[in-house]
Specification:
The complex is a heterotrimer of chains A (303), B (296) and C (245). Helix content of chain A is 36%, strand content 27%. In chain A, helix 3 packs across helix 4. Chain A starts with a strand and ends with a helix. In chain A, the strands form three sheets. Chain A has a six-stranded mixed sheet with strand order 5-6-7-3-8-9, with helices on both faces. In chain A, strands 11-12-10-13 form a four-stranded antiparallel sheet, covered by helices on one side. Chain B contains six helices and seven strands; from the N terminus they run αααβαββαββαββ. Chain B has a five-stranded mixed sheet. A two-stranded antiparallel sheet of chain B has the order 1-3. In chain B, a hairpin with a 2-residue loop joins strand 4 and strand 5. In chain B, helix 2 runs antiparallel to helix 3 and helix 3 runs parallel beside helix 6. Chain B is elongated and about 120 Å long. Helix content of chain C is 78%, strand content 0%. The two termini of chain C are 23 Å apart. Classes of the chains: A alpha/beta (303), B alpha+beta (296), C mainly alpha (245). Chains in contact: A-B, A-C. Chains A and B meet through helix 9 of A and helix 2 of B.
């Protein structure tokens, strides 16, 4: 089931294009990572999906709803934390949650405590929201977002400004929530952070969608390997397994194999292949760090 | 007088009608929402804006049911995913030794080899087929255990001895892999109620797991009725502790090694069926397995 | 809608600001009693209250705006509601209703507590025949004016958003009649016709409701209705177009 589908979503502010014809699809169960620099258009995109900002053009399909009225109804299945976490300054954590529980018509009073336990914010007592640290604010906002058992969670840079413990906890929480069937859209400008949680990615730069790829594809692109181009891939595969005992390899195209072992000894690889009658056209090491990959993606598209 | 009575009656009537229409509205809303939820794949629960307590109670009961429904649904999906992964992994594991054996067989058939190479190839084929055999028997054993067909011979067993035996069995392999082993086993007998063979199997599997996935350092400790096996390992943050004992679970880090992940699952089943417990925890880069056995 | 209102009442009742106007009015009554201790009685005081409603009472409504709608801007919580799929119209109307309920309650309290206090101190006073009816009519009409004022206040809060600017704007609205008279005095123009169309003057006018003829009543209610509908419609339209920060 498609949770979100946008088609040519566009928004400009005073002549400058913030989001430029962005079309993407998020399926149920995904943890979708939206990566881009600050100002690349991630937040504006999220604001359009949540109807905080009206798009200039383009279509939004949320849970199959496309008309304005149906979209508003569909949004009751969303939880979102956009930009800075904002709740009532003079209320405590429990009071803030109780407010939203009443407002959204959630019948179970116990849900407030439940949600506080999920985000691990059970001991703030009488502390008012204005006295919370940034990490606590984010956790409470997340609590409000999941209060009504949403199907789709939209998180705008949730890792921003957190200390390392907070980052790990948030990551674990996101994974857990995803296992309970919540589709998640996260944005970040740090690819390595997202790489630990997301299963699909979209890279956005200057408002344009540069590339979308799955976790598998990202790993394939980035994993350190020996890229070997041969004339007979099948024969080469047999040689790898039988003569070298290599199990960890992939055939990425008709004539190219990526080998994830024996990185230290390409000469041996060459030798064994040649010995078995396989011609090796080229053999070299590939593999980017995630950052390198990201920069490569946007570097080639700087306007 | 009569006028006042009429007014009061009128007010009462209006109140009743109001209550009735509110209840009807509630029921209608509930019906709409519920039929929406029933036909969609959603986490949504019923919301409320009712003034009536019985309706609110009804909503809470229905929500409890919806919650259970969702939980069961996800459990089923998870099991399905595990099963699919199992099938994929198992077929891969079965295919690999077969492919290798076939490859060597081909070489035996096609080329002129000297007796020494011939013998070597034949030995390799035999080894591959043996490992295939081990895999198959692992699978059968596991199936047998979960079906509940194993009988346990629960006795009072000296766990200290069993542990020492298991360690010395695995010692050669551990040493060969460069492990430093630290054993903290009491000299006095430590008695627990369990099945001796099953216990041996559990310890074997745990130590084998350390050999295959661990690195450099192993510590074994026995106190009261708890056995702790701690070791350092790589890629621990990728291992999902909660899922470690799931049948066929292997983290990406160990995919290329020869393991189907059954060893741990078998160990856990055995431990639990004996009345004990097997759990894992992680601190930094140290993984600790803990076996708890029933006391006398 | 009920849920929104319920939630807002929950939130507002956790603070102290919502109780301030009530306390303030009691203080007002006390001061008035002290200043006039020799000449107060139930009916006289009520008359005073009705006549002074357009300033004395309306000022006390201002804290309510700061409870009801200012926080969603100053604390920035509106995005939580909109992103969750709350209709912008519903949001606006719910704030309006909460403000209206609070103000209505406060108004009744204003008159009732004053009347009670004055009666205790100085006795009931003269009750002419039809007094009860007249009083109820006056209160009813003034209540409508109060509701219109709610509409204006909520509109201004959604328009201006920031607390300080809002206070000044609200103050200005309340003081319009004074301003007009002042202009009239300085420029020597006859501005009495303007006072038919100003909200505050109409509230004052309603104090002696039973003295008005049908035509005057019609014009007055018409004007008040405009003051009620136009700001709300404008506010809702403004909200629907706005970019939520």
């Amino acid at each position: 089931m498609t949770v979100l589908k946008t088609k040519n979503l566009t928004k400009s502010y005073g002549g400058k294009v913030a989001v430029d014809n962005v079309s993407l699809t998020i399926e149920q169960g995904d943890i979708f990572g939206l990566i881009g620099q600050n100002g690349a258009g991630k937040t504006t995109f999220m604001r359009m999906i949540t109807s905080l900002t009206r798009p200039d053009s383009g279509q939004i399909d949320l849970f199959g709803a496309t008309t304005s009225a149906k979209l508003t109804e569909a949004r009751t299945r969303i939880g979102a934390v956009i930009e800075t976490p904002a709740l009532f300054h003079n209320l405590t954590a429990v009071q803030n949650l109780e407010y939203y529980r009443l407002q959204r018509g959630i019948a179970e009073k116990s849900r407030v405590q439940e949600v506080l336990e999920i985000v691990q914010l059970t001991d703030t007592g009488k502390k008012k929201f204005k006295n919370f640290s940034l990490g606590m604010k984010q956790r409470l906002s997340l609590a409000v977002a999941i209060l009504g058992h949403p199907d789709f969670l939209i998180l705008d840079e949730p890792i921003n400004g957190l200390d390392p413990t907070g980052i790990v906890e948030t990551r674990d929480l996101i994974k857990r929530l995803n296992q309970e069937g919540i589709t998640i859209l996260i944005s970040s400008h740090i690819l390595t952070e997202l790489a630990q949680v997301a299963n699909k990615y979209a890279i956005i730069h200057h408002g344009r969608l540069i590339k979308t790829l799955t976790q598998e594809q990202l790993h394939t692109e980035c994993k350190r390997a020996m890229a070997v181009t041969v004339d007979d891939a099948a024969k080469a595969a047999v040689v790898l397994e039988t003569a070298l005992g290599i199990r960890d390899y992939k055939q990425v195209s008709g004539n190219e194999l990526r080998i994830y072992e024996y990185l230290h000894d390409p000469a041996e690889l060459s030798f064994q292949l040649n010995h078995a009658g396989v011609r090796v056209a080229s053999i070299h090491e590939v593999g980017d760090s995630l950052e390198e990959y990201y920069i490569k993606m946007i570097g080639g598209n700087v306007q | 007088m009569a006028v006042i009575a009429c007014i009061i009656l009128g007010i009462l009537l209006a109140a009743c009608l109001l209550r009735l229409s509110l209840l009807k509205r509630d029921v209608r809303q509930l019906n709409n929402k519920l039929s929406g939820i029933a036909y969609t794949d959603t986490n949504a629960r019923l919301g409320t804006n009712t003034f009536d307590q019985s309706v609110a109670d009804l909503i809470q009961s229905i929500n409890a049911m919806l919650k259970k429904n969702r939980r069961d649904y996800f459990e089923a999906r998870r099991t399905e995913a595990v099963l699919k992964r199992a099938i994929t992994n198992t077929s891969h594991d079965l295919r690999t030794p077969l492919t290798a054996a076939r490859g060597y067989l081909q070489m035996l058939e096609s080329s002129e080899l000297d007796a020494e190479t011939r013998a070597r190839y034949i030995a390799i084929i035999r080894r591959r087929l043996d490992s295939l055999g081990v895999l198959m028997s692992d699978l059968f054993e596991f199936a047998r255990i979960i079906e509940g067909n194993t009988t346990f011979d629960i006795q009072e067993v000296n766990v200290a001895n069993a542990l020492r035996d298991a360690l010395s069995e695995a010692y050669a392999e551990l040493e060969g892999k460069g492990f430093t082993v630290e054993a903290d086993i009491p000299d006095v007998p430590v008695i627990c109620r369990c099945d001796e063979d099953a216990l041996r199997r559990v310890l074997q599997n745990l130590l084998k797991n350390v050999c295959v996935h661990g690195k450099a350092y192993l510590r074994v400790r026995l106190f009261e009725n708890k056995i702790e096996i701690s070791n350092k390992a790589d890629g621990l943050d990728k291992i999902d502790i909660a899922h470690m004992f799931e049948r066929f679970y292997t983290s990406d880090a160990s995919r290329s090694n020869k393991s189907t992940g059954l060893g741990l699952a078998i160990a856990k089943e055995l431990a639990e069926r004996m009345g004990g417990r097997l759990s894992a925890s992680r601190e930094g880069d140290v993984l600790m397995m803990q076996v708890v056995l029933p006391q006398v | 809608m009920m849920n929104l209102i319920r939630a807002d009442f929950y939130r507002i009742s956790r603070g102290w600001v919502v109780y301030a106007p009530f306390a303030g009015l009691v203080l007002l009554h006390a001061i008035a009693m002290v200043l006039n201790s020799y000449a107060v009685s139930g009916t006289m005081y009520v008359e005073f209250l009705l006549g002074g409603a357009q300033l004395l009472f309306t000022v006390s409504m201002i804290p309510f705006v700061f409870c009801v709608s200012v926080p969603i801007f100053s604390d920035g919580t509106m995005k939580n509601d909109i992103s969750w799929g709350m209709s912008r119209t519903k949001l606006y109307v719910s704030k309006l209703l909460v403000m209206a309920m609070l103000s209505a309650l406060l108004y009744v309290f204003y008159i009732a507590s004053g009347m009670a206090l004055a009666t205790i101190i100085g006795g009931v006073g003269d009750i002419v025949p039809g007094y009860g009816m007249n009083l109820l009519q006056a209160m009813g009409a003034q209540m409508v004016g109060v509701l219109a004022l709610c509409s204006v206040m909520i509109f201004l809060s959604f328009l201006l958003k920031k607390p300080y600017v809002l206070t000044e704007a609200l103050g200005a609205v309340l003081l319009i009649p004074m301003l007009i008279n002042w202009i009239s005095a300085i420029f020597h123009v006859d501005t009495s016709w303007v006072l038919y169309f100003d909200l505050m003057s109409n509230i004052e006018r309603f104090a002696s409701f039973h003295l008005l003829d049908s035509r005057a009543i019609l014009i007055a209610f018409g004007v008040v209705a405009v003051w009620m509908i136009v700001p709300s419609a404008a506010g809702i339209t403004l909200l629907r177009r706005a970019e939520i920060k």
